[in-house]
Amino acid sequence: MGFPLRLLAREVYDRVVAIKGPAQVALITGEEKIVPPQARYFLCTAESMPLQSDYAFVALDEAQIGADPERGHIFTDRLLRARGREETMILGSASIARLVKSLIPDVDIIGRPRFSTLSYAGAKKLSRLPKRSAIVAFSAEEVYAVAEMLRRFRGGAAVVMGALSPRTRNAQVQMFLNGEVDYLVATDAIGMGLNLDVAHVAFASLRKFDGRRSRRLTVAEMAQIAGRAGRHHKDGTFGSLGGEDGSAAFTPEEIEAIEAHRFPPIEHLYWRDGAPRLDSLATLIADLEERPDRPELRAAPEAVDLAVLKRMAVDPTVVDRVRGQRQVARLWDACGLPDFQKLGADHHARTVSRIWHFLSEGTGHIPRDWFAQQLARLDSVQGDIDTLSGRIAAARTWAYIAHRADWLADPAEMAERTRALEEKLSDALHAALTQRFVDRRTTVLLRDIGQNVNQLPVTVEADGTVCVDGETIGRLDGFRFSVDPATRHQDRKLLLAAAERRLGKVLRVKADELIGAADVDFALLDAAGDTPCIAWSGTPVATLLAGPTLLTPEIRLDRAILALDQDVQKQVTSRLTNWVDAQKQKHLLPLVKMAESAADPQVPPVVRAVFAQLGDAGGVSPRTDLDSALGHLDKDQRHLLRRAGIDIGVLDIYHPGLLKPGAARWRGALLAARIGKPCLPLPLPGLTLIPAGEKFDQMGARIAGFRTFGEQMLRIDMAERMARTAHEAIAKGEAFTATSPQIVSLGLSEAAFLALMRAAGFRAVEGAEEGNPNWVFKGRQKARPPQQQQHPAREGKPRGKPAPRPAAATPARAPAAPANNAFAGLAALLGRNG
């Protein structure tokens, strides 16, 4: 029997096991396979129904889902192809009867009337809902909001969503069935046959997002959900939440149709070839995109598996490896990996591609260690409800893979590990849901002592957990206490007051530990998008802000430390300042010496000016920014700069030591602090050539010492080295092109190479072989005074264009020292190249 939900398949499986025993019952879903050798009853999700085997009886539940754009083609395929040897049963709404009769002419239509009455009970406020009510919402945010209000007004609620694992869902439902809570908040997942003892169903909204747009529920969808109220001979009611004129208000026509169970017939079902040919990628895609030849059927919208297949079909590696039916089938199986995390086709395609590459090479198995690493990344019960739900969704991906016996060398072991991981996360999620939406903790806190803060027993565990009478109320991370996010708003002040009163001594001890800590215990936090901070033992304790100079930022202590005594604050600030000074000596010594030289009266004023400007820029600056200052230096004064380790390049002026990864990080952090902006992303250490990337990536790369050349960015010391190499090659009369060994080994594209050559003052010799030009160094022209630049005789005349020369002409000699006009031509030629 095929079911629409994993939760429902599991529920029916548990009920059949109770009747027939575990040895006779199998459960087959994407993430769970329990198949005893002598199994006679198979409970499956519709997607996992084994169609090739021979069964006496086959059933498909909720067949009207065939009209759903996302999953409809699966149910339509099962309706058309899944057959039992002796009997086949299609279960579903009467609205699909006409279509089933048209598609399967010899079918017998048997109606099953509802024994209980379902009636409209009107709109009710949340605080006036009757007990044993289920409130239905259509987003996680709305579910959480309703459950939070129920906790405030009625003491708590259980939560049921389709994304929950069976273990979490069962634990939540059990609280409702046991009477621990009288209310249940759920998404429309309860409409698919989940059997609950519900007397009243209240709709928080009548609109849902169906994956493409926000729309009002159809009458059939309303009735499917409202029908959860009442069981067998027990009547039930439905209604809306709020006023009669709210967004959840039913129209008289909708009420009449639901009470009479009368709905418009379904006009069509979605279809896709369920058994496509596997001769080649082309025939597979063609069959999957084939349109149906029956008027009752419509071509299904492109599903995620087909979207992923199309993306992979244009990959040369895939095209090269996928030859023959076996490889095509293996690729199509990989594309069938469900997108449990709902991250979209592009992101999911990357996961599928990684899996398929393992399946298509070597032994054809996913490496055990790699698979285990993916599980280890999820093996944490820390985090809020959404975080735990996200981990469970990711764990479902690996559970699906673990139950493909041909994908892993040891599938049984990994299936057990994924099961244990999902159970662990499910228990944590159940605890988080209960803690957030069931009012147990406050009862414990105030059981004997009322609202008297002074009597609250507060303890701090070794890991920073702060407890009140054994109940966790928050964490102490470093110096900062944070209330547990599940704490009610009205309880926050109470818990904060209790914690702060008892945490004073603990915080003073921590401050003493910080003051006496070794340098290795501190770290710079410069993550992209964040304000630069100083961390102690992994916890932020201070922020770097703009100070008098680039090298002297303000160290602003965390607000939790500012609550300590003034004397303690001064000692902490002094310790952090000493650490920052040590880091400057370690990573930014050239920059420190520039600042000292800029203030040294023994250094000529014009040289001090260069030191000051360069130091203010972080020790790395485009030459254009310093051309004016360089123009006032004579040869000896330039020698002073070079003796200080400064490289006066054709494009940039910099100290090579400041291009090291540690120096780049500190320069980026100090520059961010200076302008009051978040840190920018920096290239990975050791790279010399990177893609240009987005705007902020380019800005961060420039800080790290990269320069843009077309679609690539090259580290400035390598750019200068290539410029010198070009001079040497041209001086020898050798061609220097994008295919030269130095350029090829660097990985520079032809477009980036040409941009580099032009920026460095070279021009292609006219008449040279196209695509393989010889070059001549023309230098860059002096910046003309405004009146000369506007001279009528000069307007429109191209600048720097060389006279025609033979290909083997001797290159023009470069000046002995860079002239002060070296960047004037660059501004005109490559102004947008940075």
What's the average pLDDT? 83
The portion of residues forming beta strands comes to: 15-25%
Shape: globular
Please identify the structural class as seen in this structure. Answer: alpha/beta
Number of strands: 32
Distance between the termini: 66 Å
Strand order of the largest sheet: 7-14-11-8-10-9
Q: Nearest-angstrom radius of gyration? A: 36 Å
Helix fraction? 40-55%
Unreliable stretches, pLDDT < 50, 5 or more residues? 442-454, 781-834
Major beta sheet, specifics?
A: 6 strands, parallel
Counted up, domains total 6
Number of helices: 30
Summarize the structure.
With 834 residues, this protein is α/β, with parallel strands linked by helices. Helix content is 41%, strand content 15%. The strands form 10 sheets. A 6-stranded parallel β-sheet has the order 7-14-11-8-10-9, with helices on both faces.
Describe the structure.
By secondary structure, the chain is an alpha/beta fold. It is 41% helix and 15% strand. It has 30 helices and 32 strands. It has a 6-stranded parallel β-sheet, with helices on both faces. A 4-stranded mixed β-sheet has the order 1-4-2-3, with helices on one face. It starts with a strand and ends in a 5-residue tail after the last helix.
